[in-house]
Amino acid sequence: MNRPHHTNGGNWWPGWKRPLAAFLAVSCAALMAAGCATNLNNAANGANGLPAEAPAAQNKPVTIAMVLPLTGFGRAAIVGKSLKQAGELALFESGNPAVRLIVKNDDGNAGSAGTAAQEALAEGAEVIVGPLFGASVPAVSATARTTNTPVLALSNDRNVAGNGVYLISDLPESETERIVSYAIMRGKRRFAALIPTGAYGDTVERAFRTAVTRGGGVVVAAERFDASANAMLEPARRIFDLIKEAAQTGAPVDALFVPGNQDTLPTLGPQIAYANIDTATTQLMGLSGWEFPNIGREKVFVGGWYTGQDPAEWQAFSERFAQTFGQAPPRVAARAYEAVSLAISLSGKPKGQRFTQANLTVPAGFAGVNGRFSLKPDGTSERNLSILEVQTYGSHRIDDGTRAPGQSLLGHSPPGLTGTYSPLPPGQLPSDLQHRRPLPVQPVAGRTTYAVPL
Q1: Distance between CA atoms of 222 and 205, rounded to whole angstroms?
Q2: Which of 95, 140, 145, 415 is the most buried (most CB within 10 A)?
Q3: Domain span at residue 232?
């Protein structure tokens, strides 16, 4: 399903297909007739991003707030704008006149985030979507807890989850456990790893070692590397030498885990090839950072495995976003869309019973842009993560990540459900956002990859 909905009952998608321009025209005309005015471009100044209330609404609308970085230099403000647009798209597509979306600017820092949350609560927000950065979450959540208002944060730092904060994000721990579990299911037992330095790498290494041990495997060796090309050489050489030595002793390394991205893999690929690592014996595998155009140009990565999400579902969302706003979305925009859609799906319940922990953490979960996801009482989330295999052109889905009732979302599905897609080059946003331009036929892959927890 392309659009998020609450999977435990309720009629949340009324089949509303009105074009965005028509919706805005009707809404603005109605507001003007009522003596009101709304400026869709003033969200960067902390004002409402959408009409406050449909004229036909009999009761006070349910207010959903977004706290986002909308000003400043660099990619944060650009991403923040896309997140705002994704939230607007969710509201437009719901066709729900009983919901009001307000957008507050946090300037990308914790101090402003706390103030933005205070403003949102003063305007009646019953749930907050955001902030984007983990450093801003404590300020928002501290304010939100004064009114028992839940926070659907877009950070991927699980350290800020819990106590009313739910992460609507892709957690590197979950991705790591998924790829390791799949590799063990395919008979891999002896692992080596080449992991970047920094906070992201720390998180991934801990998750990697835990997952391998839990699955009955062994970490033969692990090295950390800095992102600069020269700094990669020595740790990579040590790992490659160990792999070659192990192959000669009759106890080969079954898999080499390289959680890199398009900034590091094009440098590491030729080194792996030069070292003559037999990838038929030592399976290469990574995380969602592998999801970038032309990874298959480095032949050594062809046949490699990595975690990703349903490309067909992303394609549908990406096309609708691009048709509405004139540009392709960054991957993280899907998370904002899901968070607002989730909130809308619960908005029909009586006040005080809408955004409770019980409703937010229903075991059945929710259907999102990139497959099913569920929120857990500890504030983290689980998602259906597919396993994809790199091909010369594009990638091939070899495991779709579906689950039986009660089975972990990190578990694998029976073989046979596969799909093929091709990542596409960046569109109108800066290349560091790593988004993908949508195509009308082939599904699209892509995501924003962050070097540190957001």
Answers
A1: 8
A2: 140
A3: 172-308
